[in-house]
Design brief:
Elements: E1 2-8, H1 16-31, E2 35-40, H2 44-49, E3 52-55, E4 83-84, E5 87-88, H3 89-100, E6 104-109, H4 111-122, E7 127-131, H5 147-168, E8 171-176, H6 183-192, E9 196-198, H7 206-218, E10 224-229, H8 235-238, H9 242-251, H10 257-268, E11 273-276, H11 289-307, E12 313-318, E13 321-326, H12 327-330, H13 342-349
Parallel strand pairs: 1-2, 1-6, 6-7, 7-12, 8-10, 8-11, 9-10
Antiparallel strand pairs: 2-3, 4-5, 12-13
Helix pairs in contact: 1-11, 5-6
This protein binds 6-O-phosphono-beta-D-fructofuranose.
6-O-phosphono-beta-D-fructofuranose binds at residues 11, 110, 133-135, 177-179, 230, 283.
InterPro entries: ATP_PFK, ATP_PFK_prok-type, Phosphofructokinase_CS, Phosphofructokinase_dom, Phosphofructokinase_III, PKF_sf
Domain Phosphofructokinase: 3-306
Keywords: ATP-binding, Cytoplasm, Glycolysis, Kinase, Magnesium, Metal-binding, Nucleotide-binding, Transferase
């Protein structure tokens, strides 16, 4: 009997259930009655505190299009808090892994999740990871599931903002998620026809941004749209040491960087400006068809690795194929947007301003 534990960890995204379904259906097909799947509740928390349950084939039906995660999720910052209330989280996870008698733990998550997955693999557990996140910032894979669905939503927001922006002749900032990287903003910004795209990888100079807004106004454009990454930062901030940057941000009298940019623009120009923050909308609802397919491919690839007893890998998309990448190569690395990537060069060819 193969015993497989499965959990989803970190921020949720579209495609988690599709991926869970992919793993489970492929396992049942491979091992029929000779497999037991344990659903571990709320991410690594469930493994730490022993919240898990036996699941059965019908549990994995009808969930392909379902948003969120049927297993629940949570964030667990291990580095700072390995031991809490005398509970050593890692030791507890090892204990519960053994208690279930697992052959393999399948984790669906982003950067933090894979860091922990690698830690557990180094502790001797059999672990396989699946790359999920709307941020697309996981090293080792060209694409994470969730990204395309979130891009659809962020693009739709920019599309809709266009009609109100043009009616009123306003400047609009649409703040896009993405944590510390600009993939989502770059793609949604290009797809939505934003005039200015600000991403963390290209620190912005407010003078360049205002100059572009003025230029558009003089050219007779009634409105301008800025796609701003939630992690965008100014040239001045980019020059700061990490600690000073953190302290400055803690003092920032705005709910997010977009509001500060709006104020910076208002301070030196007459542009009428509004800010829209779609926030967690970008992670909600049903996965788009691309993500359904990608999640399914990742899920079945994970089942294949289990069949071959090949553990300690994250399944990844590279040049159109699904390949295993060692967890040790993925853990702790962020995939940022290369500033000279084709997408940025193409956007620049179109005259899109990056604020530099
Ligand atoms: O990692 C996905 C993500 O949505 C980021 O884009 C965002 O910065 C973060 O999660 C928000 O986290 P939370 O859901 O914990 O507020």
């Amino acid at each position: 009997m193969r015993k497989i534990g499965i959990l989803t960890s970190g921020g949720d995204c579209q495609g988690l259930n599709a991926a869970i379904r992919g793993v489970a259906k492929a396992l049942y097909r491979e091992f029929s009655d000779n497999v037991m799947i344990y659903g571990i509740q709320d991410g690594y928390s469930g493994l730490i505190y022993g919240n898990y349950k036996e699941m059965h084939e019908p549990d994995f039906s009808g969930i392909l299009t379902l948003g969120g995660t049927i297993l629940g999720t949570s964030r667990q910052p291990f580095k700072l808090m390995r031991v809490v209330d005398d509970i050593d989280k890692v030791e507890n996870m090892k204990k519960n892994y053994k208690k279930m008698g697992l052959d393999c733990l399948v984790v669906l998550g982003g950067n933090g999740t894979h860091k922990t997955a690698n830690l557990l693999a180094e502790e001797g557990l059999h672990v396989i990871g699946l790359p999920k996140t709307i941020d697309n910032d996981l090293w080792g894979t060209d694409m994470t599931f969730g990204f395309q669905s979130a891009m659809d939503i962020a693009t739709d927001v920019i599309d809709r903002i266009h009609t109100t922006a043009t009616s009123h002749g306003r400047v609009f900032i649409v703040e896009v998620m993405g944590h510390k990287v600009g993939w989502l903003t770059l793609y949604a910004g290009i797809a939505g026809g934003a005039d200015v795209i600000l991403i963390p990888e290209i620190p912005y100079d407010i003078k360049s941004v205002v100059a572009e807004l003025d230029r558009r106004e003089k050219a007779g454009k009634r409105f301008s749209i800025l796609a701003v990454a939630e992690g965008a930062l100014s040239v001045e901030e980019a020059g700061m040491k990490k600690k000073a940057f953190k302290a400055a941000r803690a003092q920032m009298p705005y709910p997010s960087v977009s509001y500060r940019i709006a104020d910076e623009i208002s301070a030196v120009s007459e542009h009428e400006i509004r800010v829209t923050v779609p926030g967690h909308f970008q992670r909600g609802g049903s996965p788009c068809p691309y993500d359904r397919v990608l999640s399914t491919r990742f899920g079945t690839a994970a089942a294949q690795l289990i069949k071959k007893e090949k553990y300690g890998y994250m399944v990844a998309l590279q040049n159109g194929s699904i390949v295993p990448v060692p967890l040790g190569e993925v853990a702790g690395k962020l995939k940022t947007v290369p500033v000279d990537c084709e997408e940025i060069l193409s956007a620049r060819e179109m005259g899109i301003c990056f604020g530099d």
